[in-house]
Amino acid sequence: LTAPHRIVSRARRRRLAMAMAMRTMNSSPPRPPLRMRMKAPRRHLSSPLHCFARGAPGARGRGSPGFARSTKPMVKSRRSSAVTAASASGVAETLAHVVGVCVVTGACVRSLPQILRIHKSRSAKGLSLGSFTWESIGLTLVLAYNVSREYPLSTYAECIALVIQDVIVACQIFYFRHGFAKSATPFALSAVGGVAMCATLFWWLPAQPFGAQALLSLNAVAGLIVNGSRLPQIVMNLKRGNTGELSWVTQALNVCGSIARIFTTLTLTQDILNLALQVTGLLLNGTLLAQCYRTIQMRRSGELVDDDVDAVVEEPKLA
Q: Which three-class secondary structure string do you get for the chain?
């Protein structure tokens, strides 16, 4: 009796197990084949953008396991484009710094031809004293603004050399027109005024609460002064019909410097105000260079003789 009872119990247990298995299979959907149940590698899910790729798990639309493909090339292309853009930006900045250094180097000798020409001829014919004086004042304001904004030194260092050279040319013009006796007092007053202006712009004004806004406003005024300082020289050339002792080499260096400064401003600082001032300066410097070229052509053709240079009225002289 024991053996048949055990056999029946085992058979009953098998039937119960089969019934439970059938019930479980009927309640759940049929499972797909093994080849369709394979999941994509986890490396394809490293970015949220990959969930929209064809064949990715959870993708909608046309994506299906049959169309699954790796999105790794897309990631590589995005990374390569970003690296290319970064490298191009670095090259542009490096080139802008090199150009800035070249501008500073050229600025150190910009007015040297003009200084030597005045010294050699012992005359300041056709040169506007107000043009060089106002340019030195405007460049000092520009220098103070750039120092306060902590811009790279290569973007404004030429202002230091230009101010020194403008002061030398202004002193030469005043000396050769009025002599040493009448020049000593104006020279002393100008030196005191220059020291006071530098102390105000570089020491006192930045320490004030309104210093940043004041320097910004002064920079706009400085741009107008620097560019406006070209106008007296242009007007004098038009009245005289020639440029006199104005050096064309200096004007050519001014044009090259303006072009280079436009490039460095666009690349390094993106300062719209400085960019507008540089473009305006390029137009005025180009006008002076064209006037110098016209004078050279007149001298070559014989229309202008050096003895006739002073035939036109100069700037008012001191009594």
A: CHHHHHHHHHHHHHHHHHHHHHHHHHHCCCCCCCCCCCCCCHHHHCCHHHHHCCCCCCCCCCCCHHHCCCCHHHHHHHHHHHHHHHHHHHHHHHHHHHHHHHHHHHHCCCCHHHHHHHHHHCCCCCCCHHHHHHHHHHHHHHHHHHHHHCCCHHHCCHHHHHHHHHHHHHHHHHHHHHHHHHHHHHHHHHHHHHHHHHHHHHHHHHHCCCHHHHHHHHHHHHHHHHHHCHHHHHHHHHHHCCCCCCCHHHHHHHHHHHHHHHHHHHHHHCCHHHHHHHHHHHHHHHHHHHHHHHHHHHHHHCCCCHHHHHHCCCCCCCC
